Structures are given as C-alpha cells and as structure tokens.
Amino acid sequence: MSAELGHFFLVLALGMAVVQAIFPMIGAARRDGRMMALGPPAAYGQFIFTVGAFLALTYSYLQSDFSVAVVAHNSHSLKPLIYKISGVWGNHEGSLLLWVMFLALFGAMVAHFGRNLPKSLQARVLSIQALVGIGFFLFMLITSNPFDRLPNVPFEGNGLNPLLQDPGLAFHPPFLYLGYVGLSVAFSFAIAALIEGKVDPAWARWVRPWTLLAWVFLTIGIVLGSWWAYYELGWGGWWAWDPVENASFMPWLVATALLHSAIVVEKRDTLKSWTILLAIIAFSFSLLGTFIVRSGVLTSVHAFATDPERGLFILMFLALVIGGSFLLFALRSDRLQAGGLFAPASRESGLVINNLFLSVAAAVVLYGTLHPLLSDAILGIKSSVGAPFFNLVFGLLMIPLVVTMGFGVHLQWKRARLKAVSGKLKMVTLLSLLAALMVLYVTYGGGIMPVVWMGLGVWLLLSMLQELANRIKLFQVPLKNSFERLLRQPRSSWGMSLGHLGFAIGLIGIVATSYWSLEQQKVIPVGDSMTIGEFTLTLDDVVAIAGPNYTAVRGAITVTDKNGNHYMAYPESRTYVASPMTTTEGAVRTTLSGDLFIVIGEMQGTDRWGVRVYYKPMQVWLWIGAAIMVLGGFISLSDRRYRIGSPEGKKAAQKNKGKQAHAV
Amino acid sequence: MRKKRRLYLMLTSIAVLGLAVLLVLSALEDSIRLFYDPTEIVEKGIKPGQDFRLGGLVATDSLERHEIKGAMVNKFTVTDGNETVDVTYVGLLPDLFREGQGVVAEGSMNSAGVFVATEVLAKHDENYMPKEVIDSLKKRGEWQRDKSAKTKAGAS
Fold it and tell me: Mean pLDDT across chain A, nearest whole number?
C-alpha cells in the first residue's frame, strides 16, 4: 500500500511544481501580487508531498517489502537498520527521489527565508526552481519510478554490496546531493536575474549564502567519499580521478569560483555577467554529474542502448536546461550594467585570476572525463584517461592559483600596491624557501616537484596566518588588544581565514601523501618480519574469527619503529555469508606524521599470509584541512549579514560596512 | 579604459586557455590507455611492451598463486568467451577480484604472449562488472544475465 501512496504523493508533488512554475512567473511579469503569492504555498506543498513519497519508500525498505522492485534489488531483510535506510538512496531510482526531495526542500527554504526578497525576484526564483523540479518528477514517473512493483514477489532481496555498508558511504550521497541541489538556488537566482535584467550587490548578498551552503555540503560529500575509498577499499589511495569522482569535483571547482566572484559583485558591483554565467555552469555540472553517474553513461556510451528511454530523456533535459539558460544568457546578459573599474593589481584582479584558473581546471577535468566517451562514440575506440594526465595538468594549473591566493588576500580592493604586499610577505617567503630547502635536503634525489609544492604549501599557510596577524595587529598593539580584535572579527572573515588555512593544510597533506607514500607487499609465515620505511612488522599470529554476518581471519602484528616503540595491529580479511565476497579491514594507525595502513590477504598455502603495508605521510592533514574548510564555511554562514534576504541583515551590513572593509 | 581592460582580460584568459590546451594535448598522449578484450588482442596482434587495458572475465579455476622470494605471483586467464589471454600479476589482488567475474587490468604483453599486469583495477561498481567488459561480452555473444546489465546505481 505504501508504494501506491508514495507514487500518488509523487504525482501530487508534480502538480504542485506545475502550479509553482507557472503562476509566479506570469504574476511577476504582470505585477500581479495574487498570482505571485501562489509561489510559497506551492513550494511548501511540493516539499511536503515529496517528503511523503520519500517516507513511503523508506517504509517499504524498513518493512523489507520485496514486491517493490527497487527494494528487492537493493535490500535484504537481514541488513542492519541504518543500511536499510541508506539503501533508499543507494540506487538510481531512490537517489533521484532524494535529489528531488532536496530540491523541494531548497524551494521551500527560498519561500520561507526569502519573504523579504523583492516579490518579483522571489516569484521568479521559485518558478525556475519548480521548472527544474518538473523535469525530475517527469523523469522519475516516466522512466525510473521507485514505486514500481514486481509481478513475482521474491522471498529475499538481492542485498547490498558489503563494501557499501559503511557509514562514510551511507552519508556520502546525501551530502553530495545537498551540494548539487544547493547550486540549483544560485542557478534559479541567476536565471531570475537575467529575466529581471538586474544584478546588484543586494542580489549577490542573497546568492552568496546559498552558494556557500551548497559548497559546504559538496565539500563534505566529496571528502566523505574520498575517506571511504581510503579506509574501506584499502587500495592505498584516496583519489583516483575516477569519472564518478570527477563528476562531483567539477561542480565543486566552479562553485568555489562562484563563491569568490559573487564577493566581487557584492563588494564592487562588477563581474556581474561572469558571475551569472558561473552560476549557470555550476548547476549544469551538478546535473551532468547526477545524471551521468547514475545512468552509467560515463563508463560506457552503450548504457544508453540498454535503456534508450532514460538516455533520451536525460539528453533532452540537459539540452533544455543548459542550452536554454545559455541562450537566455546570450540574449540578456548585455542588459547587466558593468560596475566599478579596478586596477590590474587589486583584490578584484586576484579574484578574476582565481576564477580563471578554477574554470580552466574544471574544463580540463571535464575534457579528461569525457574524452573516453567521445572517442568511443565518434571513433569507436575504447580507452581511458589515467590519473597521470589529471595529476600533471591539474597540478600545473594549481600552482598559479596558489600563488594568487597567497598574494590576493593581502591586496586591497580597487587598487593595491604589489610592492607593499611583497614587502609584507618577505618573512613568509624567506621562511618557506627555508622549508623548501629542508625538504630538498631530506628528500634529495626525489625530484624537484615535491620541493616546489611543499614550499608553496608552507608559503600559503604562512601567508594566510600573516594576513590574520595583520588584521588583529599582532605585535603592533599590546597582545591583549590583539586578542580582543581577534574575538571581534566578523564571522565572515573567520570563514575566509579558516577556509584558506584549511586549504593550505590540506594541500600540504596532499603533497606529502602523493609524493612520499611507501608501499610494501610480501608473503610471510607467522613469526616472520618485514620492514617499511622506519617500521618493522612482525606477524605474531593469525586466528579465525566469526562476526555477525561474516567469518574472518585476523592477523596480530607487532609494529616497531626505529626508536623501539611498538604497538599491535589487527588487520582482518572478512568473507561475507550472504554475498560470497571478501573485504579487507585494514589496521590503520594515524599520527600527524603519517598513517601506517596494514592489510592482510588470503592464505597463501598453509601457513603463509600476504601482507600489504602502506605508509602515507601526513595523510591526516588532508582530512583536518578539509574539516577546517567546512568549519569556516559554517561559521561564515552564521554571519548576521547573510541572514537570507532579511532587511535587518542588510541594515546591519550597511552599518558595519566601514568596520568590515577588509572582511570578505 | 573599460574596453582596454576588457581586452587585457580577454587576452589573459585566451593565453591561459591556450596554454591549458597545449598542456592537455601533450599530457593526453602519454596517459591514454586503450582498452582491448582478448579477441582484439589476438586479431590486432598487439606489440609487446605497449601499455593498454585488458578486460574480460576471469576464467573459472584458472587462478594459480605462487610465492617467489616473498613476492606473490598470480597467474590467471582472462576470457571473453571467444579468445583467452594468460595474465600474470605480482602483488595482492584487490578485494573485488574473483574467478568468474569481470576484471580490468593495466599492463602490456611480453614476448611470450602473456599479459603482464602492473595494476589490477579495484574500483568496480556494485554489479562487480566493469562496463567495458559487459560491452565486450555482449559483442562476443557471451552475455545472458540481462537483469544485471540494466544500469543499476554506481558505487557513489
């Protein structure tokens, strides 16, 4: 029964979306307040019905109702509760439902928090939001209905890959989707602005918190996915430039650019059409990511052939949304008046360069991701583009970006003196050169790139710290006053500082773990030892153990470092009962200086065991850096000035404008 | 003034884009890996030493493991139902490697006609079947399990 109810809710939500798309738009054009007023209630209705549909599907999963096709294909009655719930979105149909629920949620949020927006702008934003929603509802109802029943009800479900039964992966898609869908709001604002023909600092102030919210969720989603790949898959990597990963990384790159260009619109009333364009591109990447990953097209064009209906719908929808908005942009963008001028050396220029490199980097990732698809479709050649391509090109593009970042935060708006900034950074530059020399000395013969990168990373970190120190006048006024200044920093500048510091810390971690990782594989009997770097591993014992739904062998390994300190590691190799497959549970010891990651393999002969060890220097810095970035995002979001569209926020912003001249 | 600024901006953007394109083209040449199934290897006569990706099914009961001086040497056969290729790989095989299931490996042929894998790819989707392998098997008429061919969700 719940499936039919869910299906019914979905149809009702579609109806609400149609109302929400049509009337506010007409109302805004005719200045008809009554028609525009239909927008918010329709948005609430759409949200409530979508939640109803989602709950109905969740109920089917909890009840293990295997007459529902997606439940039978993706669940199992013995699955732990949390994975029954996460199973709801662990497949194509369910993930679409989650996506559209978030879309409706953001629509309802615009309706609720946007009460103080200009009426016509809010109406148009809601209408665009609903138009996107209609596309998704139709796609689900026509090609991917999660509530389809099976004619023959199976006794038991197909279960879920045990590899996917991991908290990191269970919550990775929802965050990613919150990020993807969050960008829809920036998109709707951009399209609404194009229709209105007006972009001003107030517009940017409304768009920024939404973009920031989307960016924070996207960051969390990407990091959770990477974390899962690192800990659960145990192949010793955290990023493989896999098409699935790229699909989430491209919108992140563009969202990062958008976040920065919206600042220029807000502060300086310029870069308007570029910002609009970025908002469109960012959401286009979101759509591309969602559809392409979920439909499996990226790994093979022939996925279209297995399900032509779905493929055709996706192509048409993408063409309509992306093509339509680019057309609108081409027709309308000249109406947006260009604002303030700025000198080549200024914070604006720094942000333009930031945008330039971020967008080119996104384009490169896009090309590398689509190349196999294109060569297969056009030439019929099956190929793949490997990580070396991305590492090389993306890495080289990041160097100027990092340099711009380190300089940019010290630059003033409008016109800055580069000389003064380089003077300010003298100490920082000297220190990081020293750091680079030390790295060169320690890793002599290991290539020049890690030295350059480590130097850059340290330079960026110090430059950010110096910027913070300048802002609180550290050592220029008594320490107590500096501390007071630190506490009085507006939250958005905290966000800026933490975001950039987190990036620098993460960058240092990435450089270390990418260039200096060690790997060692060996087959040894119990009692034997192997070494990796400065660690010696002794396999003391291997025992068989039984878990709730798996059996496993567990190794007991003594790890000794060069100082004689030792600890015990217990890596496991599990074999699941329900679906006969093996997973490794690595034993990871994390310290600031590096992770020691031990994996035990299957039995080799009678008493010999395959042991694989990775040493990942400074791996944890990457996770810490990402966490700091996310924290910065949340703190910035809580800034009063960005209480979405609230007049108080605006007034406060004007009042504080003098005080916060340096805050971004 | 404004026009001049805009011109500079355009020129810089074009320069960066141009550089990126050059970089992309030169880097692409070295990192494109072509994908072949066993039939194509036999038909095309791939030269020894040329890097490519091999995909197919791991033939049932073909996996042999030896230990040579503490290193683990795996030997198995990859088939597309039409032709077969012998593969050697030194190291621990990934979790998702199983006999009778799809596999993608990167490496090259040696002079004895054996594919020496440098990497056995661990990241499949939850269907345990890389898409390229499905396509290849379909082409060779070896694909019957239509249910699993339908695109289910990727692992993300």
Answer: 87
**Average pLDDT of span A100-125:** 93
Residue A474 is assigned to a structural domain of this protein: no
B-chain residue closest to A384, CA distance: B33
User: Which secondary structure element, helix H or strand E, spans residue A276, and what is its range?
Assistant: helix A272-295
Question: Same domain, yes or no, for A356 and A407?
Answer: yes
* A279-337 pLDDT, tens digit each: 999 999 999 888 777 666 655 555 455 566 777 788 888 899 999 999 999 998 887 77
Per-residue tokens: A619: 């791996």
Q: Phi and psi at residue A230, in whole multiples of 5°? A: -70, -50
State residue A139 phi and psi, 5-degree precision: -55, -45
Q: Is residue A60 part of a domain?
A: yes
Indicate whether A86 belongs to any domain: yes
- For chain A positions 169-208, those within 8 Å of chain B (CB to CB) are 169, 172-173, 176
Q: Give the residue ranges of DSSP H helices in A39-171.
A: 39-62, 69-74, 81-86, 92-113, 119-143, 167-170
The lowest-confidence range among A157-171, A238-252, B24-38 is A157-171
CB contact under 8 A, A521 and B72: yes
Half-sphere exposure of residue A524: CA atoms within 13 angstroms, side-chain side:
22
- Quote the minimal CA–CA distance from A3 to chain B in Å: 20
pTM, two decimal places? 0.89
Pair (A217, A160) in one structural domain: no
Q: Is A531 on the interface with B (CB under 8 A)?
A: no
Residue A102 gets the label, from left (phi > 0), alpha (psi -120 to 50) or beta, of alpha
A367 with B24: Cβ contact below 8 A? yes
Asked if residue B25 has pLDDT above 70, the reply is yes
Q: Say if residue A71 is in the same domain as residue A173.
A: no
Report CA-CA distances (Å) from B69 to A524, A534, A610, A632: 10, 22, 12, 51
Chain-chain contact of A382 with B35 (C-beta, under 8 angstroms):
yes
Residues A79 and A218 in one domain: no
In a domain, A435, yes or no: no
Do A606 and A577 reside in the same domain of the chain? yes
pLDDT at A482: 86
Q: Contacts of residue A396 in chain B, CB cutoff 8 Å? A: 23
Kindly list the strands in the beta sheet with A587-591, ordered across the sheet, starting from the edge strand earlier in the chain. Answer: A518-525, A608-617, A594-604, A587-591
pLDDT range class, residue B146, cuts 50, 70, 90: very low
Residue of B nearest to A339 (CA): B2
* A144–B contact, CB cutoff 8 A: no
Tokens of B10: 């355009």
DSSP assignment of A605-639 equals: TTTEEEEEEEEEETHHHHHHHHHHHHHHHHHHHT-
Residues A32-56: pLDDT tens digits?
989 999 999 999 999 999 999 999 9
Q: Select the residue from A97, A246, A299, A575 to test the B interface by mutation, using most B Cβ atoms within 10 A.
A: A299
Q: How many CB pairs under 8 A join A and B?
A: 166
A146 in contact with chain B, both atoms CB, cutoff 8 A: no
- A282 shares a domain with A187: yes
Domain count, chain A: 3
Does residue A662 surpass a pLDDT of 50? no
Q: Is A306 helix (H, G, I), strand (E, B) or coil?
A: helix
Q: Do B95 and A163 touch (CB under 8 A)?
A: yes
- Subunit contact B126:A164, Cβ cutoff 8 A: yes
Q: Is the domain of A249 the same as that of A268?
A: yes
User: How close is the nearest chain B Cα to the Cα of A608, in Å?
Assistant: 9
Q: Which residues of B touch A169 (CB under 8 A)?
A: 155
Look up the domain containing A60 and give its range: 1-165
A406 HSE (CA, 13 A, CB side):
23
Q: pLDDT > 70: what percent of chain A? A: 91
Burial of A479 (0-12, 13-18, 19+ CB in 10 A): exposed
Determine which of A118-122, A620-624, A652-656, B99-103 has the lowest per-residue pLDDT on average. A652-656
Q: Same domain, yes or no, for A257 and A156?
A: no
